[in-house]
Automatic annotation (TrEMBL):
It comes from the Bacteria. GO terms for molecular function: monooxygenase activity; nucleotide binding. Keywords: FAD, Flavoprotein, Nucleotide-binding. This is Tryptophan 7-halogenase. SUPFAM superfamilies: FAD/NAD(P)-binding domain. L-tryptophan binds at E335. Pfam families: Trp_halogenase. PANTHER family: FAD-BINDING PROTEIN (PTHR43747), FLAVIN-DEPENDENT TRYPTOPHAN HALOGENASE (PTHR43747:SF4). 7-chloro-L-tryptophan binds at K77. FAD binds at G13, G14, T15, A16, V178, L326, I339. The active site is at K77. InterPro entries: FAD/NAD-bd_sf (IPR036188), Flavin-dep_Halogenase_NPB (IPR050816), Flavin_halogenase (IPR006905), Trp_halogen (IPR033856).
Length: 490
């Protein structure tokens, strides 16, 4: 008879490990969940920007939002401001909301495209509440605010916050460094991990949350890695924290430089900064120099230097081991998707939670979906690089002409030639595609035929009304800093 899943061992206590521990212990109360982590190894110590889906994950855990914002020193995020991506001077915001309104059979971008041609339309972002609120530094939550938002947070504090929840749910924490992994001779399944203090922890299922070390999924099971660095040439990052100067803005800054980009993320108590770059085009010391010269406020941390290979494990679930977080792969944080991908794998695991350790069908389904999710994010991130018009450095000249995944090439061509755009089932980014494509100058050559059915005067009135309604809505909101102060004082 096949072995029932009664115990789960998570190795690694970073954001991934504690997210998994908190969620799985909440849903499967009969499961014995153990988490092993090593204080001496520590966590990666970065990961501050999120996307709106984190709200749903927190709701699943029954987390009180105000409590969470307080504990993680979070601020609110309406989108990402991309600076210097299309050309060194140009900037646009990818906001988390819808732009305009679809009419008849056609998406709003078709009406905007015709309005633009006739000189009737304002910039695409003028029709998106989140973009306008971000630009005006305004924010509010509540039924009247109508804003879709995410958070900037201290990921280490988030992990610790989830740890309290997980331990309350009965998760057992074992401190120690895993020095040995034992496998079943026949199946290859992992049987137990042994810590440097001699203690052995077994489990029916294992979750590898050991970060870039990928101790179980790769070092033990040798799952293999799909290297995507030919599509995303950046391979290094340096993170640095500074004091917060000025009020926190409700958006992330992603500022392009000559060989990559850098981020600025405001939290309540500090600012997270970092640089992502390609070591082929920028030496490490120059990258650090560039970062040091661009940060504002006094330094509050030493530079955290990180090397990575963009890509993902060939299987995210291999044998009886599921990889989460950095152990599962890495895509640079341009669209703040890593924590989201952790959450997605956890939710998939919950949906496909196997009755027994022998569960090839569940495993295959999980891997198929995880693979699609990773590739969708890959396409979206590559898009930002490929759409550059910059030719002021060898790095950007490379990006302008580099090959891209076929799926992305098809999407870009279809949008440019026809203005049409189709999503696969369950895709994460929807309106975001239009904002980034148009924001970076990929304007369709034509628009949907139905748009010509609308008289010009009606089109003008419609565009004016949409823009005015966004502006009058935003005008009623408090500043982000005012809102945050009020929100935290309750
Ligand atoms: C430069 C950079 C910027 C990023 N920015 C963002 C962002 O803005 N938004 C976002 O969503 N994500 C971001 N990420 C990704 C995000 O940081 C990670 O997805 C997230 O922190 C999860 O990390 P983790 O838990 O997988 O790994 P880690 O935090 O590295 O945790 C690994 C854990 O495994 C343990 N461990 C390792 N080896 C052993 C062993 N032998 N025995 C016992 N324990 C062991 C460690 O002690 C630790 O507890 C960024 C990543 C990088 C590199």
């Amino acid at each position: 008879m096949s072995q029932r899943v009664e115990s789960l061992t998570i190795v690694g206590g970073g954001t991934a490990g504690w997210m998994a521990a908190a969620a799985l212990s909440k849903v499967f109360k009969r499961l014995k969940v153990t988490l092993v982590e090593s204080d001496s190894i520590g966590t990666v110590g970065v990961g501050e920007a999120t996307i709106p889906t984190l709200q749903f994950f927190n709701q699943l855990l029954g987390i009180n939002e105000r409590d969470f914002v307080r504990e993680t020193q979070a601020t609110f995020k309406l989108g990402i401001q991309f600076e210097g991506w299309r050309s060194p001077e140009q900037k646009y915001i990818h906001g988390f909301g819808e732009t305009g309104k679809n009419y008849w059979a056609a998406g709003f971008h078709n009406f905007w495209r015709r309005g633009d041609e006739l000189g009737l339309a304002e910039s695409f972002g003028r029709y998106c509440r989140e973009v306008q609120a971000a630009q005006a530094d305004r924010f509010a939550i509540g039924p009247d605010s109508g804003l879709n938002y995410a958070y900037h947070l201290d990921a280490t504090r988030y992990g610790q916050y989830l740890r309290k929840i997980a331990e309350r749910n009965g998760v057992i924490r074992e401190e120690g460094k895993v020095t040995r992994v034992d496998q079943c001779k026949d199946s290859g399944n992992i049987l137990s991990v042994t810590l440097d203090n001699g203690k052995s922890v077994d489990g029916d299922l294992f979750i590898d949350c050991t970060g870039f070390a990928a101790l179980l999924i790769e070092k033990t099971l040798q799952t293999g890695y799909e290297d995507w660095s030919h599509w995303l040439p950046c391979d290094r990052a340096i993170a640095l924290q500074t004091e917060l100067t000025g009020d926190p803005k409700p958006y992330t800054r992603a500022v392009a430089h000559k060989a990559g980009w850098r981020w600025e993320i405001p939290l309540q108590h500090r600012r997270g900064n970092g640089i992502v770059y390609s070591s082929e085009y920028l030496p490490d010391d120059e990258a650090l120099n560039l970062l040091n010269h661009s940060v504002q406020g006094g330094l509050t941390s030493e530079p955290n230097k990180i090397r990575f290979v963009t890509g993902k494990r060939k299987l995210q679930w291999n044998k009886n081991c599921i990889a989460l977080g950095l152990a599962s792969g890495f895509l640079e944080p341009l669209e703040s998707t890593s924590i989201h991908l952790i959450q997605q794998n956890i939710l998939k695991l919950i949906k496909l939670f196997p009755d027994s350790v022998e569960c090839a069908l569940d495993r295959d389904e999980f891997n198929r979906r995880a693979d699609a999710e990773y590739r969708q994010v890959l396409d979206f991130i590559v898009l930002h690089y490929r759409l550059t018009e910059r030719s002021d450095s060898p790095f950007w000249r490379h990006c302008r002409t580099m090959s891209v995944p076929d799926s992305l090439a098809h999407r870009m061509e279809q949008f440019q030639e026809t203005g049409r755009f189709f999503l696969e089932d369950g895709e994460l980014f929807v309106d975001s595609w239009f904002q980034v494509m148009i924001g970076q100058g990929l304007i369709p050559k034509t628009y949907h035929a139905v748009v010509d059915e609308m008289p010009e005067s009606e089109l003008a009135a419609m565009l004016k009304q949409l823009s005015q309604s966004v502006q009058s809505h935003i005008a009623k909101l408090p500043s982000h800093a005012e809102f945050l102060k009020r929100y935290l004082s309750v």
